[in-house]
Automatic annotation (TrEMBL):
Coiled coil: none annotated. This is Cobalt-zinc-cadmium efflux system outer membrane protein. InterPro entries: MdtP/NodT-like, OMP_efflux. The keyword Signal applies. Residues 1-30 form the signal peptide. One of its GO terms (molecular function) is efflux transmembrane transporter activity. Keywords: Signal. Belongs to the outer membrane factor (OMF) (TC 1.B.17) family.
Amino acid sequence: MPSPHRRRPRFAAGCALVAIATALTGPAWADPAPSYEALLARLGQTPATLEADALFDAAEARVRQARVRPNPELGLEAENAFGTGPFEGYGNAETTLSLSQDLELWGRRGARVEVARAEAGTAALRRDLASVEAAGRLALVYAEAEAAERRFALADEALTVTIADTRAALTLVEQGREPLLRGIQGESEAAAARAALDEAQAERDAAFARLTAVAMLSAPVTSIEASLIDRQPAGAVAAPGSTPEVRVAEAEREAAERRIEAERVRSRPDVRASVGVRRYEAEDATAFTLGLSLPLPLFDQNRGNIDAARAEFRAADARLLGARQEAQADREAAEARLRASVSRVGAADAGVTAAEEAYRLSRIGFEAGRISQLELRSSRAALISARNAAVDARLARVRAEIDLARLQGRAPFGTSQ
């Protein structure tokens, strides 16, 4: 069996290698990411908001088009020409030039405009909802990137502390005050801490990449200086009576109701009036022609479209009922989660303070030989867990603020859109 004297240099060398690797892990930071407010001001450039804006512009264009009357129809007709007998050639022909126009009676144009206006109103509300959702997604990605950065810093600090504890254990092993097993355990703990650091670095880089993509930044995000997870939520902001989803459902119901009336109007005859001039070649004379035409609703009375519009209205009414039933419950639940998350942050901060003091006293006691390495390891693990729990509590508070802000129709940590 190898002697303990041969194993001790291996432990010291292993810890030295871990310390050197730790020193090399620190990246060269570039410029920090813009603040959350700066990114929020650029929210209109994101694909989701651009799509919602384009759909609203399309709805507005359909309103303008709905106001336009149908074009008149110009017709030219020749009769009694190029036949046989007295109608040979064009000498006895009758030529008629006419102009016909759809009169759009029964309120057809007004019903069409009302449907287009209702759909434009729905598109406007959906645009507002898309802006709120984009702001919430930005806040979440920003907070997750900041939390990942903090977890990486905590993992780096945990590795440093673990190496320091391992060195202290090796010193006691050299002095014969601790068995060789403690050195082996310390080396294993340092390797595990190094692996945790690598994992935290990968999570941080992935979170930074997501933030770069969501915020549509030209340069990759490499650090965050303007904190969001430490900010107090704006949960006390006054909110409108209805959630954005309820307002969208109400607009959809109104548009469905307008479509019923439009289909009813379409079932009535489409009256067309015409006026023209007729030329009589044989008599070398002209005369005016007047006409009025309308289809006979014997077969197509638009019953199917009317029934379909009524069914769509019932569906929209059901969606509105469901949205109203869920709105109040969702808001109360979001407010409760936000209050709980605020309390959780306070408790987590108190836990970190207690864990830091416990670890400090454990380290002093371990170096003095009054407590074992197992107790030191336990207090160190409790400190690492408490610090990570504090980050998790802050991230949960951000998520609760995002949920409540969406129900209130505003950007997280901000005012109404």
